[in-house]
Write a structure and sequence with these properties.
Layout lengths: L13 H16 L2 H20 L3 H4 L10 H23 L23 H19 L14 E10 L5 E10 L1 H24 L3
Antiparallel strand pairs: 1-2
Helix pairs in contact: 1-6, 2-5, 2-6, 4-5, 4-6
């Protein structure tokens, strides 16, 4: 098995190793229905946090250099759509043929689409993922089951004490990939909370 390294060639940080170990362990422990519910709960938490955001607040950039809440919502909707597409292939026993879902995927709609439209599209994307996972069986991934090439981002502690992302590629089975979608939703729920707290 080839050793995984970050895209810059550096060894994986402890935080990245822990993320991979978590996905592997939980994918073995959890049934498909349990994974579905965890993703549903994470999506509901995110949608609840967004419910109190006004259209004007959604496009304020309270933290220089960071996304607006509208940009976060657009990003999640776009990645949920692509993630669902990849899960459909994996659950059908096929390796997804498309490029991986890159970490900063956005459509640009956050600049002009009505806030209500962005929220509705996020909800529809979440619902499509739930429906796709309904077809998952209780069988664990076999050794020859297809995987998806996945862009992973782990927040690691840097030498100066600050935090920064480490980006690397990993091959994930469908359960691991589905659990990663849950982590993605929870990460952005936390991000939206921080952006809301920083609003003027």
């Amino acid at each position: 098995m080839t050793e995984i390294t970050a895209v810059d060639g550096s060894p994986l940080a402890p935080e990245s190793i822990r993320m991979l170990a978590y996905l592997k362990a939980r994918s073995v422990e959890l049934t498909p229905s349990a994974i579905r519910e965890r993703i549903r709960n994470a999506a509901t938490e995110l949608e609840t946090v967004l419910a109190d955001v006004s259209p004007a607040q959604a496009r304020i950039r309270p933290i220089p250099g960071k996304w607006t809440i509208a940009e976060v919502v657009d990003h999640i909707a776009q990645t949920q759509v692509r993630g669902t597409e990849e899960l459909r292939h994996l659950l059908a026993g096929r390796r997804p043929p498309l490029p991986p879902v890159y970490e900063a995927l956005r459509s640009g709609a956050a600049e002009w689409a009505p806030w209500e439209t962005l929220l509705s599209e996020l909800q529809e994307a979440n619902r499509a993922m739930f429906e796709t996972l309904q077809s998952a069986t209780g069988e664990d991934a076999a050794a020859n089951a297809p995987t998806v090439r996945t862009v992973m981002v782990a927040t690691r502690k840097l030498e100066d004490g600050s935090a920064g992302p480490q980006i690397f590629f990993a091959e994930l089975h469908w359960k691991e990939y589905a659990l990663l979608q849950r982590l993605h939703l929870l990460d952005h729920r936390t991000q939206v909370k921080k952006l809301r707290a920083a609003l003027p």
